[in-house]
Specification:
By secondary structure, this protein is of the alpha+beta class. The protein is built from 3 helices and 9 strands; from the N terminus they run ββααββββββαβ. The protein has a 5-stranded antiparallel β-sheet with strand order 1-2-3-4-5, with no helix packed on it. β6 (about 125-135) and β7 form a beta hairpin. It is elongated. Keywords: Chloroplast, Membrane, Photosynthesis, Plastid, Thylakoid, Transmembrane, Transmembrane helix. Its main location: plastid.
Length: about 180
């Protein structure tokens, strides 16, 4: 989603708050709870889940391993829920020709660097680049080439846009900033 006027352009970047991540977090937490409860049931000798009998599972080693997998799965599931809740990677790309600056903002993990903001002078932007790697797992990245600095990626990792859509985005941004396009 983007907003554009004669002097400004704003593009919202979707972070980790996606439907797929929420589904995977639910599946992971529910599955790992099952493992943990069956493992713990084998330890205490009573069925904590009515439909699953743990009488045939000895605590050592099967029940202990199931508890380990349950704890590991819960840890991963809670981590994924945290990234969804905090919307890690979400943010915006803001370009203002009238003021002559650009601001690239992303949310990170909580702590000292939760807010990641890069401010650039538009005069330092040399080109808009497009890096494309085709194959079984295609990877396409739109980036800004900055004079005297590292290139700054503008698209999120795993954004599955077609090459045509990426080229269109690159051309639109290059026209807006009045810079060249590289990497085709």
């Amino acid at each position: 989603m983007s907003s554009r006027s004669k002097w400004t352009q704003v593009e919202l970047i979707k972070g980790s708050r996606t439907f797929a991540n929420s589904c995977w977090a639910c599946i992971l937490v529910c599955g790992s709870m099952g493992f943990l409860l069956v493992g713990f049931s084998s330890c205490i000798g009573e069925d904590l889940i009515p439909l699953l009998s743990s009488k045939q599972i000895a605590f050592l080693p099967q029940g202990l391993v199931m508890c380990f997998y349950g704890i590991a799965g819960l840890s991963l599931g809670l981590y994924l829920w945290c990234t969804v809740f905090w919307d890690v990677g979400g943010g915006y790309n803001y370009f203002d020709k009238q003021e002559g600056f650009s601001s690239i903002f992303r949310w990170g993990f909580p702590g000292k660097n939760r807010r990641i903001r890069i401010r650039l002078v538009l005069k330092d932007v040399e080109a808009v680049g497009l890096k494309s790697q085709e194959g079984f797992f295609p990877n396409r990245t739109l980036y800004l080439k900055i004079r005297g600095r590292q290139s700054i990626p503008l698209t999120r990792i795993g954004e599955n846009l077609t090459l045509e859509n990426m080229e269109e985005k690159a051309a639109e941004l290059a026209r807006f900033l009045r810079v060249s396009i590289e990497g085709f």
